[in-house]
Amino acid sequence: MASRRTFIGQLASASLVVAGSRLMALQAGVRRRDVSVGGRRVKTVDAHAHTFIPAVADVVRGTELEKGATASAGGNLVMNDERLRRMDEQGIDVEVLTINPWWYSADRDLAARIIEVQNRGLAALCAARPDRFVALATVAMQHPDLAAEQLADAFKTHRMRGVSLGAIVSQDELAALRFDPFWKKAEELQALIFIHPQGVPQLSGRLQGNGFLTNVIGNPLETTIALAHLIFEGTFDRFPGLRICGAHGGGFLPSYNGRFDAGCVTFPANCKGTLKKRPSEYLKQCYFDSMVFSSEGLRHLVAEYGADHIVMGTDYPFPWTTTSVDHILNTPQLTDADRTAILGGNLVRLLGIPA
Question: The whole model's pTM is what?
Fold first, then answer.
């Protein structure tokens, strides 16, 4: 993470316009890798790329959220030349920019100002390089009616086609009924909803020690919990048109969905209400990124949910992988049509990216 001094220096010396100009004037010295499938050039799109809007620091300065904003402003999260250089090296044509939420405790007025600045900043970055970046909107989910308005405004004003969310809002699951106004609007707009976890702090004691377990277990576990609640609390039944994408291959749920199907059959007293489908069937309407680290993991996701529901992800700038493109190209069980869809075709369709 950048130090506070570094962060403030970035804020003072760079505006979004300057950042966009630097990206336009990039002299990286790296030839852009063209990716081909079956002898044909394909467009590659990274669904999982983080960023930060420095101007939001002014909005939260002097509030209890200032620390959270500063902690979120890591060096490569701010747009810079290095991002495009790495995209060119890896063969990534377009990044879908997202911001992990740190503002869910903000009151309504502050939340409205944060989201306005962030979405305007995201739109400016994409306008500077429309060939390389698209963005998912940010919203204040702690105020569901406001979040619905913010999503609608992002679609109308900034021509965004999706939204990024945390996997939990304070102590409330995304499946809580109070969020239904937001889900209704998201379904109406056919928004792509990217759910990104931030760990399970309730387990922090058990996840201490070697192995970075707070992340390698905590993050996929939080996605698993969020998706499970959306299924079992009936959110997908109430809003069957939702387009939800789970980060990190959807967590653990896609690899163990048979137990979810069996749970209410084996122990019906623990399940209230009646779902319209088997729990695993709801996952077939979800999307998952390709961050599963092995060819077998990717093959399994495709076998369970279809290549038309898997999208490429890198988690940039966090150094989990630099080989997402090759991961997809080199998984032997995939067809050329599968590879083309996962590398970018699915996101071109879902987000209206020019082919």
Answer: 0.90
